Amino acid sequence: MSDVSGNQLAKVSKLFEALDEAGRHKLLGLAKKTRHPDGYVVCTEGEVGDEFYVLVMGRVRVSADDLGEAKEIAVLEKGAFFGEMAVLNHEKRSATVTALGEIELVRFPRAAVDQVLAEYPAAREMLSKVGVMRSEEALAKLMG
């Protein structure tokens, strides 16, 4: 991915601050940048999570099934990352993410994430902590 540098991503997303330049470069070398229109469904609740994402442009809506009805959990903006828990824990997606306007993503496949995070335990720990906090917040919003 020659159009996005590791330093640029470090400025966009806190996740990449936990990696050194070599780690960012390695992860980016295995990533793919994509652009999508308004309404595009990035990932769907219940599907297998084989990649996680950093939002580099635009906004997305995060929603989860609440007794058969989609309930908004969050709106994420530039710099946010999502999909990490399904990738880290080899779980199914806990929410559906939909584009609110045109978006640009950097997609990180599970194999790349596993390979790089094995060398950077601090980044893995940070991802896990964020994922646990998000799970607790989502549950609170669904119950509230």
Write the layout of secondary structure elements.
Blueprint: H1 6-12, H2 21-29, E1 32-36, E2 41-43, E3 51-66, E4 69-77, E5 81-82, H3 84-89, E6 96-109, H4 110-117, H5 121-143
Antiparallel strand pairs: 1-6, 2-6, 3-4, 3-5, 3-6
Helix pairs in contact: 1-2
Q: How would you describe the overall organization of this protein?
A:
With 144 residues, the chain is of the alpha+beta class. Helices cover 37% and strands 34% of the residues. It has five helices and six strands. The protein has helices at 6-12, 21-29, 84-89, 110-117, 121-143; strands at residues 32-36, 41-43, 51-66, 69-77, 81-82, 96-109. Strands 1, 2, 3, 4, 5 and 6 form a six-stranded antiparallel β-sheet that branches. The longest helix is centred in the C-terminal third of the chain and has 23 residues, at 121-143. It is globular, with a radius of gyration of 15 Å. The relative contact order is 0.22. The model has no long low-confidence stretch (mean pLDDT 80).
What labels describe this entry?
144 residues, alpha+beta
Which percent range describes the beta-strand content?
25-35%
Helical run tally: 5
N to C succession of SSEs: HHEEEEEHEHH
Query: What does the average pLDDT come to?
Result: 80
The termini sit apart by 42 Å
Coarse shape: globular
Overall structural class, as computed from helix and strand content, comes to: alpha+beta
How much helicity do the residues have? 25-40%
- Tell me about the largest β-sheet: 6 strands, antiparallel
